[in-house]
């Protein structure tokens, strides 16, 4: 039996679950690509490639050279650059391609959300009056808040923020989810947090802070997603597996 070569652009829980399901299949030859930005990544169920490709051109060349039959973008909803490069590479090579993207969170009664288009915009929305801010956006874009040095920041990330922010008041918390609502509520209360800056990542693992903010009446500055246009997208691992079956079905291979 010939195997279908599949490249999964990963780094999320969904990518790991999808790779686990496909790794058990006799008809699939799988490679999981990770950005390599996490110091201690979790063990993965399939062969792993770590690091970038050199933009969309490099990714297109890799797809062609390695003779992949399918590419799946299962990166973080805010990994905009790799998602854009993947869409461009797929179009250039005409290799079947889709994205596995968990649905974003939706506003509920009691939520005090201010929606913004970027982390940089979130920094400006905080205002001039000093506030106690919980930054729950990871480490890579925390530097934007150096433009608002008057605030007191609590910054949570998986890996250290390096270099530390050039602001007077900043505390750093290293932690890996999932984060439960009650623990998040205690964190917000103990640190007297007045506003949270978060990305609309979706999923359950980091929703605890959003639910806790609702209960406490705390404002959330929510950075919304900027999805690539014209990319076929599914929302669950089950839907992704069904689409893989469809793309590799005899009917599709015959062009029916």
UniProtKB/TrEMBL annotation:
UniProt-recorded name of the protein: Precorrin-6A/cobalt-precorrin-6A reductase
Q: Key word Oxidoreductase present in the record? A: yes
Tell me which NCBIfam families the record gives: precor6x_red (TIGR00715), PRK08057.1-2 (NF005968)
Q: In which pathway does it act?
A: Cofactor biosynthesis; adenosylcobalamin biosynthesis
Give the domain of life.
Answer: Bacteria
User: What's one Pfam family here?
Assistant: CbiJ
Which residues span the membrane? Answer: none
What are the GO BP annotations of this UniProt entry? cobalamin biosynthetic process
What keywords sit in the KW lines? Cobalamin biosynthesis, Oxidoreductase
The enzyme's first-digit EC class, named in words, is oxidoreductase
Q: Which GO terms describe its molecular function?
A: precorrin-6A reductase activity
- Documented EC number(s): 1.3.1.106, 1.3.1.54
